User: Which sequence fits this backbone?
């Protein structure tokens, strides 16, 4: 089994690592796709309080060019996890930069919903407030 999905810690770590990278470096979309159930949705609450809801493919198509062109690193700085049986919620505080140790360009909290299907953890939804 893929080590990225054997624990909540591993899956959250892989979530951040797979979208992070220097300018010009392709993102690890194949690795990222292994973290999510096919029906997973991404909920971006924008500054005007509208909500953009996307599938994995829609999200990837929207952000890939910007991430690769500009460089983007997102790091978890704090986490609160609640788990009951095979359902978990992770509230993950993060910081964003365009280079590994460059100035902050953003930050916030990712609300990550996960389920365990008796063999592994899956992300089913991710919601966040957009800084842009």
Assistant:
């Amino acid at each position: 089994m893929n080590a990225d999905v054997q624990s909540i810690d591993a899956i959250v770590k892989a979530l951040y690592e797979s979208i992070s990278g220097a300018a010009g470096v392709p993102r690890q979309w194949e690795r990222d796709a292994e973290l999510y159930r096919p029906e997973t949705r991404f909920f971006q609450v924008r500054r005007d309080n509208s909500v953009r809801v996307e599938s994995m493919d829609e999200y990837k198509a929207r952000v890939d060019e910007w991430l690769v062109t500009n460089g983007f690193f997102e790091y978890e700085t704090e986490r609160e996890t609640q788990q009951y049986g095979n359902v978990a919620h992770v509230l993950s505080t993060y910081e964003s930069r365009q280079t590994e140790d460059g100035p902050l360009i953003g930050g916030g909290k990712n609300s990550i919903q996960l389920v365990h299907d008796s063999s592994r953890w899956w992300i089913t939804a991710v919601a966040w407030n957009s800084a842009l």
